[in-house]
């Protein structure tokens, strides 16, 4: 092996040169960089060493022949086999061929002290320095801030506080068995999808089982494969199976179990009960379990206990329903007290609540101290202290410590709301229809009602089955005629109740002739009305959704609207179409201005997000309030800037059954004014008690029940909301999420990324707002190392989102930390010397010798704190502590400026505020190669000045007030979080609630002194104040 041969070993040092060998050991000389002490030698076992050929674009350093210093170039071709030289390209189209002994290649370690480079005149422009600093600093800060929520940050989803908090809480827990119980429309599926992705990022070969209702299976496939890119985990076993088909479930254990709509299996008879029994061993053997259900604990104690038993069989026995219900009821007073703790509460009421709480929990010293603290505080401080008190009570008395619930009213992030709902100004439209149609509908309903009553009285039919069959006909008679006519078509019997189908089949009904004769007139009248309230109101109604339960109605309505308008304005989402066609139609409605109206049947009632709609039109009303809530919930979802969704109802004339049901759900249930999702079990019980009476007595029952049921439901809603409020978790990391979004939306990061692509000779194109497309140039390859070029290649010619809104729009991961391309660039910037130093001139007429002002750029972040981490590992809370440490001390960029005497200079001093137009870079100039050194050497001993500036900058950083504040805040935050967790654990144990049983006192002892921080010197430079043309 010849001297100067390029070698590489398995120690992570990168490329060096052969310097000698002895007794099976090879000495490699590594080039640290163009510093006063540039070389270091390391011995390696001969077997671990291999010779390498330098790849294209490798950055090289060529020493000047006549003075100290180095010229920077890059490998611009292949090694010559004839003379052993490489073609080296320099700036300004200069270049030459050099042998290995005539240049050096830096090892792979990051630059530890940029001032050493500055001492030898190894410089870049000030703009390149700032570009690298913004890009590298942004990448490092993103990495530090997103720990535990990478599944959201790296995916094409919006960043909402409640979802970030949920994912963070689960991922930071050692035991990841959780009930995700956010209200309908708040994105539980996104939370679960992010956690699945994070699990697979760690366990590449993990086994993941998702159980969901069959109609939600396509949505889960889209979410996991489209949003969370699980297709990339080809070593994993991922199955999405039918929740109600246990025969299809795997026999082997799984690592992560996700159950959507988990309440479907609780306390049910028949096949659902069998499915729950089959699920128990799978859930209890799984390492991680996520149950998704919006079910409230109050009014559904037995079903809720079944869910908790899946998560925590030790603490929750499904046979102890009576005891569990008693414990829930005991919380009634506390729940109401918690609800009364409003931010504007006065001292008198707060003192009353304190006394009430002391009667309930006289031994809860921590909570009572919080009450007294809030009472004793000045009025202007009380609001925050009451909020903290509410948070403390919620954390302490939540029904299960691994329950995560967010309520619509609890969303506090600025600009983020759930849309809400209201009745449109044209809320209820009774179509002018032939009297024969209304008479036929009423006749059919009355006749079927009498028939069912006879069947029940004779014992041939169960009352519950008769009620379900009557509900089917009542719904059809409240819809446009096609819903009724489909009963006579045996091909369309899917969804028809068997009792109704046999009654229709076994009898002749002249009423159907009346319905059929009225159909064309109703179609025309309905289409004109829909046109008038949608297409004709284009300035107000940009997007409208027309909902019906029936495919036949949807198809006929869409066809009539097309005849009145045109095909481009109308889209369809119907059960008779395949999933692909429905997806295309939905995208056309979502993405094109021309398409205004989306006509849907029952296929769009679940799993479809329609929150951009301005108007929701109901052509019929399901006689199940939960189903109607699900329909409205397609539009009443999270939205940053949309007003409440307006609903309007179209009734077929003055048909008494349809009219009474409409009035009942509108007035008694209030479903068009606010979400009733938390009342789902109360309403189901209500339907079970009222609808049999409608079957018995007719529609007048509904009218008579409105007033009394309105009061009962309002009272029950207050009670449920109080319990939900108590169980709702608080956004304890809200400041962290605000910082994360600020980093995510950083324009300087995006701008520096675009500049970096241009700077390395990659062509950029912007096909749509917030999207970049990278294209190779025909004339040259990218000016990056070969391994980075290889990492970039898969992303060429693809649409890559720069903004999060663009990422959501095109369904591709945003260019952030965690994206393979950005991580490759970040790793390169972390190790390369390019852009770490700069030198510039600020001309000051008649000023000589120059005055050097040095700049140092530090990244300050949390240090190792090995004792804290070891204690957390011992206590079993290592994940929680890692998340707590990362959020308690954000990675912060700090600039330090010093003069040639090491004195600190304010960052807002004039030289550092000058624009690039007034400052001249002093990078290497072949026409005047000595220019930088004339300025540097005129200041004195330049290497000594650089070394002193480096030392002085570090000393000033150590005493910087920001560093002291970061250290103090981090220590205080971690310690307080530990104290709070210990207090909550003690109080939960005293009140018989579930706890994790961990001993955290030894961990608390490790944070009785300030936490360690570390600083990384990312770059440095100098600005000379001098006459630009000294004599």
Structural description of this entry:
The radius of gyration is 35 Å and the shape is elongated. The strands form seven sheets. The protein has a six-stranded parallel sheet, with helices on both faces. A six-stranded parallel sheet has the order 17-23-21-18-20-19. The two termini are about 55 Å apart. Helices cover about 45% and strands about 15% of the residues. It contains 35 helices and 32 strands. With about 1050 residues, it is α/β, with parallel strands linked by helices. α4 runs parallel beside α5 (about 190-200), α11 (about 365-375) packs antiparallel against α12 (about 380-395) and α29 (about 865-875) runs antiparallel to α30.
What is the overall shape? elongated
Number of beta-strand segments = 32
Determine the structural class based on helices, strands and strand pairing: alpha/beta
Helix percentage range: 40-55%
Give the overall average pLDDT. Answer: 88
Q: How large is the count of helical segments? A: 35
| Widest sheet: strand ordering | 12-11-13-14-10-15
Computed over alpha carbons, the radius of gyration is: 35 Å
Proportion of β residues? 15-25%
Low-confidence region ranges: none
Largest sheet: 6 strands, parallel
| Terminal residue distance | 53 Å
């Amino acid at each position: 092996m010849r001297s100067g041969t390029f070698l590489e070993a398995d120690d992570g040092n990168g490329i060096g040169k052969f310097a000698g060998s002895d007794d099976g050991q090879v000495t490699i000389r590594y080039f640290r960089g163009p510093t006063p002490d540039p070389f270091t030698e390391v011995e390696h076992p001969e077997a671990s060493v291999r010779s390498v050929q330098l790849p294209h674009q490798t950055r090289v350093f060529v020493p000047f022949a006549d003075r100290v210093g180095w010229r920077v170039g890059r490998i611009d071709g292949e090694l010559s086999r004839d003379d052993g030289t490489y073609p080296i390209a320099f700036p300004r189209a200069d270049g030459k061929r050099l042998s290995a002994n005539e240049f050096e290649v830096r090892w792979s370690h990051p630059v530890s002290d940029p001032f050493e480079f500055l001492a030898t005149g190894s410089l870049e422009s000030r703009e390149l320095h700032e570009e690298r600093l913004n890009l590298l600093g942004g990448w490092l800060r993103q990495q530090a801030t997103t720990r535990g929520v990478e599944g959201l940050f790296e995916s094409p989803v919006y960043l909402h506080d409640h979802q970030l908090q949920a994912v963070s809480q689960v991922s930071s827990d050692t035991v990841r068995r959780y009930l995700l119980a956010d209200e309908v429309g708040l994105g539980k599926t996104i939370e679960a999808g992010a956690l699945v992705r994070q699990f697979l990022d760690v366990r590449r070969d993990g086994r993941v089982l998702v159980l969901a209702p069959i109609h939600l299976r396509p949505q889960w496939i889209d979410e996991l494969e489209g949003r969370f890119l699980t297709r990339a985990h080809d070593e994993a076993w991922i199955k999405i199976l039918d929740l109600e088909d246990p025969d299809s479930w795997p026999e082997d254990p799984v690592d992560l179990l996700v159950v959507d709509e988990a309440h479907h299996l609780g306390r049910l008879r028949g096949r659902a009960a069998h499915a729950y029994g089959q699920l128990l061993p799978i859930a209890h053997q799984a390492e991680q379990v996520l149950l998704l259900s919006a079910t409230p604990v109050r009014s559904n104690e037995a079903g809720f206990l079944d869910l908790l038993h899946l998560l925590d069989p030790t603490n929750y026995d499904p046979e102890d329903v009576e005891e569990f219900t008693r414990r829930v009821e005991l919380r009634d007073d506390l729940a109401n007290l918690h609800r009364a703790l409003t931010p504007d509460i006065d001292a008198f009421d707060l003192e009353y609540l304190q006394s009430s709480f002391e009667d309930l929990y006289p031994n809860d010293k921590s909570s009572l101290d919080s009450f007294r603290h809030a009472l004793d505080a000045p009025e202007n401080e009380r609001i925050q202290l009451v909020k903290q008190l509410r948070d403390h009570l919620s954390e302490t008395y939540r029904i299960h410590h691994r329950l995560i619930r967010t309520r619509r009213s609890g969303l506090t992030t600025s600009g983020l709301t759930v849309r809400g709902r209201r009745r449109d100004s044209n809320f209820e439209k009774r179509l002018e229809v032939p009297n024969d149609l209304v008479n036929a509908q009423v006749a059919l309903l009355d006749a079927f009602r009498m028939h069912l009553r006879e069947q029940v009285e004779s014992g041939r039919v169960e009352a519950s089955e008769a009620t379900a069959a009557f509900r089917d006909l009542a719904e059809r008679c409240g819809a446009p005629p096609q819903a009724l006519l489909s009963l006579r078509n045996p091909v369309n019997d899917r969804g028809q109740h068997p009792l109704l189908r046999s009654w229709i089949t076994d009898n002749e009904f002249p009423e159907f002739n009346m319905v059929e004769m009225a159909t064309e007139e109703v179609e025309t009248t309905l289409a004109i009305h829909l046109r008038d309230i949608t297409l004709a109101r284009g300035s107000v109604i940009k997007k409208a959704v027309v909902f019906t339960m029936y495919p036949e109605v949807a198809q006929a309505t869409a066809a009539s609207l097309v005849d009145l308008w045109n095909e481009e304005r109308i889209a369809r989402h119907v059960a008779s179409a395949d999933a692909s066609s429905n997806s295309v139609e939905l995208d056309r409605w979502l993405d094109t201005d021309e398409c205004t109206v989306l006509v849907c049947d029952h296929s769009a009632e679940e799993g479809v997000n329609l929150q951009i709609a301005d108007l929701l039109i109901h052509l019929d009303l399901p006689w199940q309030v939960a189903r109607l809530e699900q329909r409205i919930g397609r539009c009443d979802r999270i939205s940053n800037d949309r007003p409440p969704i307006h609903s309007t109802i179209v009734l077929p004339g003055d048909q008494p059954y349809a009219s009474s049901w409409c009035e009942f759900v509108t007035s008694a249930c209030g479903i068009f004014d606010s979400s009733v999702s938390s009342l789902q079990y109360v309403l189901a019980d209500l339907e079970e008690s009222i609808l049999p009476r409608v079957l018995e007595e007719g529609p007048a029952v509904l009218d008579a029940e409105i007033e009394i049921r309105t009061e009962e439901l309002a009272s029950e809603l207050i009670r449920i909301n109080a319990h939900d409020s108590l169980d709702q978790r608080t956004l304890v990391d809200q400041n962290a999420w605000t910082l994360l979004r600020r980093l995510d939306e950083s324009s300087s990061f995006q701008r520096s990324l675009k500049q970096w692509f241009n700077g390395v000779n990659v062509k950029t194109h912007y096909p749509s707002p917030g999207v970049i497309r990278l294209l190779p140039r025909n004339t040259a390859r990218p000016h990056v190392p070969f391994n980075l070029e290889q990492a970039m290649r898969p992303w060429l010619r693809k649409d890559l989102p720069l903004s999060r809104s663009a990422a959501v729009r095109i369904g591709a991961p945003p260019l952030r930390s965690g994206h393979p391309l950005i991580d490759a660039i970040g790793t390169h910037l972390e190790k390369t010397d390019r852009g770490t130093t700069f030198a510039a001139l600020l001309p000051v007429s008649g000023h000589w010798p120059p005055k050097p002002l040095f700049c140092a750029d530090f990244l300050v972040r949390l240090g190792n704190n090995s004792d804290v981490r070891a204690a957390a590992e011992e206590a079993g809370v290592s994940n929680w502590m890692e998340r707590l440490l990362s959020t308690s001390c954000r990675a912060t960029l700090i600039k330090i400026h010093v003069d040639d005497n090491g004195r600190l200079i304010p960052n807002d001093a004039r030289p550092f505020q000058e624009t690039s137009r007034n400052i001249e870079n002093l990078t290497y100039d072949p026409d005047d190669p000595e220019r930088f050194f004339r300025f540097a050497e005129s200041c004195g001993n330049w290497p000594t000045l650089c070394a002193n500036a480096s030392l002085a900058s570090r000393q000033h950083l150590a005493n910087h007030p920001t560093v002291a504040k970061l250290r103090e805040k981090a220590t205080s935050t971690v310690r307080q979080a530990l104290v709070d967790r210990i207090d909550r654990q003690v109080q939960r144990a005293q009140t018989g609630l579930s706890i994790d049983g961990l001993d955290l006192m030894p961990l608390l002892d490790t944070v009785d002194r300030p936490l360690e921080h570390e600083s990384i010197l990312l770059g440095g430079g100098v600005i000379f104040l001098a006459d630009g043309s000294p004599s």
